[in-house]
Write a structure and sequence with these properties.
This protein is mainly α. The chain is 73% helix and 0% strand. It is globular and about 50 Å long.
Amino acid sequence: MPNRGGGYILTALAFGLVIVGMAYSIGNISGCHINPAVSLGVLLRGGMSVADFIGYVIAQCIGALVGAFLLAAIFGLGEVMDKTGAFGSNGLSGVNGSIPAGLLVEIVLTFIFVMTILGVTSKKAGHGSFGGLVIGLTLTLVHILGIGLTGTSVNPARSIGPAIVSAINGNSEPLGSLWIFIVGPLVGAALAAVVYGILERE
């Protein structure tokens, strides 16, 4: 259990620190969404057009596929054992296969994540250059909370890439629950956009 806990923390930090790095490198170019759920939240808040949203989602999914293929190549070339059995695909084993529990986890965690992003990137709030750090730390938090339950998606693209590459490599099990990790984050993001809009008007 301690080893697993340590592994969870390291994985959570890896996700969070990557976002910090990306936010400060490409945030000023594209907004550094790299996540369809985040893009949906921004779209619903009027921060981007439908055409841009579609373009972003396509790019995000392509990026996730490339990343998953690179991971598969590294494992194959380095003869590294994939201990997850599916290149880190999301699943429901941590909630005993419960679809409602998995959906709820993803909705709540994505809600927290997107609410944070909408808050720290709001021009009215004026958080300035600290936004990327706050977003990265929040992603670390939601991963700490969710890795043991669903593997933490909060990002449909992040789930799509590994599930497809896993299926290509002979394990199609992640595809069976993939819809949960698409619907859950999108619902959570939509709720965050609505709630943030209400709070911002008050």
